[in-house]
Amino acid sequence: MDYPQQFDVIVIGGGHAGTEACLAAARMGCRTLLLTHSVDTLGQMSCNPAIGGIGKSHLVKEVDALGGAMARATDRAGIQFRVLNARKGPAVRATRAQADRVLYRNAIREILEQQDNLSIFQQAVDDLLIENGRVAGAVTQMGLTFRAPSVVLTTGTFLGGKIHIGLENSAGGRAGDAPSIALARRLRELPFRVERLKTGTPPRIDARSVDFSSLEQQWGDTPVPVMSYLGSVAEHPEQRCCWITYTNERTHEIIRGGLDRSPMYSGVIEGVGPRYCPSVEDKIHRFADKSSHQVFIEPEGLTSTELYPNGISTSLPFDVQYALVRSIAGFENAHITRPGYAIEYDFFDPRDLNYSLETKAVPGLYFAGQINGTTGYEEAAAQGLLAGLNAALAVKGHEPWCPRRDEAYIGVLVDDLITMGTHEPYRMFTSRAEYRLLLREDNADLRLTEKGRELGLVDDLRWARFDAKREAIAVETERLAATFVHPGSAESAQLESKLGKPLTREYSLADLLKRPELEYADLAGLKGEPLADAQAAEQVQIQAKYAGYIDRQQEEIDRLRRYEHTRLPADLDYSAVDGLSNEVKQKLGDARPETLARASRIPGVTPAAVSLLLIYLKKRGALGRADQRQSA
Amino acid sequence: MSTLSHLDGDTIVAIATAPGRGGVGIVRLSGTAARAIGESLCGAPLTPRHAHFRVFRDSSGQQLDSGIGLYFPGPNSFTGEDVVELQGHGGPVILDLLVKACCAAGARLARPGEFSERAFLNDKLDLAQAEAIADLINSTTEQAALSATRSLQGAFSREIDALVEAVTRLRVYVEAAIDFPEEEIDFLADGKVAEQVEALQTRLQQVLQAARQGSLLQEGMKLVIAGRPNAGKSSLLNALAGQDTAIVTPIEGTTRDVLREHIQIDGMPLHIVDTAGLRESADLVEQEGIRRAWEEMASADRILLVVDGSSPDADIASAALWPEKNQRLGADLPVTVVHNKADLSGRPPAVIQQGGDTIIELSALTGAGMDLLREHLKQCMGYSDAGGDSFSARRRHLAALAEAAACLEAGREQLQLAGAGELLAEDLRRCHNALGSITGVISSDELLGEIFSSFCIGK
């Protein structure tokens, strides 16, 4: 039957991408439907129980700055919070939280259920409704048809999923979810390029069987960090510690003894695994000279006795897993609650997407999350939010939006994916962002919240908090620039111990703040009241310390921006462009970049190749006046 | 990330005349700052479409050349942008100095074909002409690459490769420490990185020095004229210098006894130093002059030992005639023996190989045999007239190396003063990009690949 109610946006899949997608569309006022095969697993963390980390917390905070749910749920579910890289400078600091799976799921469920304009329906989706070449809705297993002009597909690893434990394998989705065969078949009929990836998980362990007495404890930071700009420590549940243990020579011997029955080493697995998250058998094989590897033991939650031993992901047969686990200190008598496994799955080449995450082949259809070849909850959430907001913008008849590489890690993520595709599960790292100094986790709100407000993603509460903070930063920055310390004054004497020598001339507080020896706290109270808002004070300090570098990055951005607006026609025949090498023709043809700027970012596309493209466009009359060089 | 260098608003500069020696050489600027840069070199305002006779000077006021300055405001110009032409005396050295001064004033070296490209994009060339531009970009890119290779021959090229590799290694350490703080590979904290930065700086300075000094083509060969008093050293200097119209910068020596000339032979730059006559002397001033003469010779690329061809000295091999040279400077420093005063000795102008010496018979007074000397000097330097391309290629490389060195220094300071690993990382990224303009850029994903193959990463 046709479901009687018409929707604007349908989101299929209730993982981290799907929840952010439907919440974003609903926040923007679209009548939104979330279709999930199980309401009980909404917001499920199917891999390790942690949110954030290097590069990833940046994404979480950007999602938060745009009104998303992930950071807020993390604050309500986090049982250990740490700031990584705390001593390495603000641009690369990253908050990481261990999360209680149940609390996290509950927090997400609560946020979903309180969201206006959002309906949830439990039923597996078997088919997409496609009319006149564009998406028109989705059909569920029982034949129910839901109609909407925008559909966001966030179905994770369900496509062609194959689970390996030793040489045994079976069709399956992640963590016991049933694979959706019918929808997979349907999608394969559409003109998307499909490729295969692999990932894995470690065996889980029952805490009651672990001897913690010999293990090193790892507690969270004090003061306890928070994830959301609106979050507070008061929201956090009880805090717990993690533990660290190590593999040893005997562990490695056991693993080596089992390699002949490893699906990886016997050639059963074809998919490419992530380089940054190798299985334990990979580690000892590739780095044979290392006699020991760290294992981080993470609690799955306050009410669970399961532990996640991070670092021993494996697809070796169960008997080898059993022996290798028990060879590790603390795990001598460990009981495995779930065996580790590797999963192979299909993903769609993200180069078939526009920057809005809409598929090039089927207008109105958006892909977000693992289906695009990424890994990680945070990467999924970021794409979900973006796909959801663009699905909503399309319904409203507005132009799509995606932050640029210099505005957000979300922009880096999407730009990398649609420009270069990926050959391994794509994970965010700060080194992927050339404008890393601008894209900090501490300023995601300053970068994005105003845009989020304009898009309708940011509610009044968040906006008011943000506005006050922004105002405080501006006022305080001005005050520091206009307040001077004179040599020989009492204030100067106070600074002398820090500076190691007296001031020789007068300096503004803003200038003094640029010095590595001085902090905001040393200066702000010298003449007048320091800011009470710690977040704002932090911004004032960071902006001063980074000023020269930020200006230079900004210049680089301004210089490169021109080609962001030079569009490359979707049907451009690269083989007809005079002078391009065959290699460059091939790369451009595969990627079909939307703009000249994207083309220039494809490895191997030289400045000369960009010139040739520009000349070709001009010859075809495909350059808008605005694209052309303006004479002075 | 690959860097687009071709941008709205930025001002490009290049030598517009064909490479090699010509009567007139033109340096062309195009872009928003063309006028300002042109006026700073000319030292006075340029009226649109007027020919101004000016002395061209660099920012320190050093005279580079004199000639005509022309300003064409856009859109009525070759490229459609503001264009300035500086028309001076030909010769790659002067033109290169002008380009260098333009770059110092804010211009960027144009890529091959970039002027034509801008002209086409601004509707200044028709479609038929445009067909040629693609070819031009291609062929000149190849040519530039060729001359770049030529200019970076052998050991120097290997040095650059080694340098890029060292920067990559360093970035691998720094980025790994930043992106994988839980992996027990915090090189930023253990001082290893600071050491490596400094080692890299030393190395980069050496390469930069080699690039500057090692290239006779770029900076000119240093030729010291030595010999007994009255052998005719000064007249030889005058003969060499005087016959070339393009005397660039005659600089008085710091003492009355060392005189320098900067001349060109067919566009080949040559620094000539005329030294005090070498002899035992009781005169304190002259002794000082002689000491300085030895100092000059120690840094020379070649010595011209001038001998009075009409004196008995002409029959003695240079090693015997002047043993102090080999004793004090070693046998490796090449010597060319000039038998001057051929008009008196009556020997015909010639190049003679004799007893391990290269001897040139000539007369500085009449000029007979001077062309043999010039040809000999050109051969010694491996100079050919087609050196223009190498000049701009080398200018690019020097600029890239200097930029890389500046980035490294900034990064070192950040690490030392503020312990700021993330700022060091940013400076290393810029350093890498600068070197990448010579050898090709490395993408962030390739860098990550290096990290993953170097360290066991991953929980």
Automatic annotation (TrEMBL), chain A:
Family matches, as SMART domains: GIDA_assoc_3
Keywords, in A-Z order: Cytoplasm, FAD, Flavoprotein, NAD, tRNA processing
Any one Gene Ontology BP term: tRNA methylation
Residues of the tRNA uridine 5-carboxymethylaminomethyl modification enzyme C-terminal subdomain domain: 544-615
This protein's record includes keyword NAD: yes
Protein purpose: NAD-binding protein involved in the addition of a carboxymethylaminomethyl (cmnm) group at the wobble position (U34) of certain tRNAs, forming tRNA-cmnm(5)s(2)U34.
Family affiliation: Belongs to the MnmG family.
Subunit structure: Homodimer. Heterotetramer of two MnmE and two MnmG subunits.
Protein name, per record: tRNA uridine 5-carboxymethylaminomethyl modification enzyme MnmG
Automatic annotation (TrEMBL), chain B:
Annotated binding of Mg(2+), by residue: S234, T255
Binding site for K(+): N230, T249, I251, T254
Limits of the TrmE-type G domain: 220-382
EC number(s) recorded for this UniProt protein: 3.6.-.-
InterPro entries named in the record: G_TrmE (IPR031168), GTP-bd (IPR006073), GTP-bd_TrmE_N (IPR018948), GTPase_MnmE (IPR004520), MnmE_dom2 (IPR027368), MnmE_helical (IPR025867), P-loop_NTPase (IPR027417), Small_GTP-bd (IPR005225)
Compartments, as annotated in UniProt: Cytoplasm
GO biological process: tRNA methylation; tRNA wobble uridine modification
Alphabetized CDD domains for the sequence: trmE (cd04164), TrmE_N (cd14858)
Record-level GO cellular component terms: cytosol
Top EC group: hydrolase
The keyword Cytoplasm is annotated on this UniProt entry: yes
UniProt cofactor note: Binds 1 potassium ion per subunit.
Cofactor(s) annotated in UniProt: K(+)
Subunit (UniProt): Homodimer. Heterotetramer of two MnmE and two MnmG subunits.
Name of the protein: tRNA modification GTPase MnmE
Lineage start: Bacteria, Pseudomonadati, Pseudomonadota, Gammaproteobacteria, Cellvibrionales
